[in-house]
Amino acid sequence: MATALHNLSNYDPNKVPDASNMCFGIVVSEWNPEITRALLDGAVGTLEKHGALPENIHIKTVPGSFELVYGAHQMTLNDGYDAIIILGSVIRGETPHFDYICQGVTQGIAQLNATSQIPVIYGLLTTNDLRQAQDRAGGRLGNKGNECAVVAIKMAKF
Ligand code: DLZ
Q1: Catalytic residues per the record (predicted)?
Q2: CB of 105 closer than 6 A to ligand 1?
């Protein structure tokens, strides 16, 4: 969680395994593209920083965050991946839609982690407003994409 005491991009690089022999799938949502593009840039940059080869990072887009579960599920059917990352941004509106999408994605990704052989890393920003999302997508609280990349490498090694 990003708080005033925790920046999402802060980690000890010496505790991250070498990713040069790993293959990653990333599913990214097209909603709130300014945010999800920044998350994607952070994730890819961090994977490559730890040795992942660009040709071993496969990126697929889906229309919205709700479709992240389907996209990740399809990727788990390909056993060539060591870890899969989902990236999305849901911003609270005036209707309960926000809660349904967040719950659906969260439960869907949890179910995938409990049933498939490949770890699926949860990079869904669920924020009250755009500023909170910007803060966590390369802003003052770091980048959730960086954090997800580090988690993906560690879980691939698990
Ligand atoms: C419909 C919708 C709304 C209102 N808000 C968001 C959002 O903030 N972030 C996001 O990623 N997607 C949103 N969507 C789209 C849904 O995730 C989904 O794509 C549609 O309901 C179609 O299944």
Answers
A1: 97 (proton donor)
A2: no
Domains and CATH numbers, the chain: 20-156 (3.40.50.960)
HSE-CB at 80 with a 13 A cutoff on CA atoms is 9
- Angle at CA 1, nearest 5°, toward 125 and 41? 50
* pLDDT per position as a tens digit, 78-102: 989 999 999 999 999 878 899 999 9
Measured CA to CA, the distance from residue 45 to residue 149 in angstroms comes to: 9
Burial bucket for residue 47 (CB in 10 Å: 0-12, 13-18, 19+)? buried
Between CA 151 and CA 139 the distance in angstroms is: 20
**Token digits for 100?**
């349904």
Could you tell me the two tokens for 84? 């899969």
CB 116 within 8 A of CB 72: no
Going from the Cα of 66 to the center of ligand 1, the distance in angstroms, rounded, reads: 6
| DSSP 8-state symbol, 78 | S
Q: Which residues are catalytic?
A: 97
pLDDT tens digits, 30-52? 999 999 999 999 999 999 999 99
- Tokens representing 149 are 């990349």
pTM across the whole model: 0.96
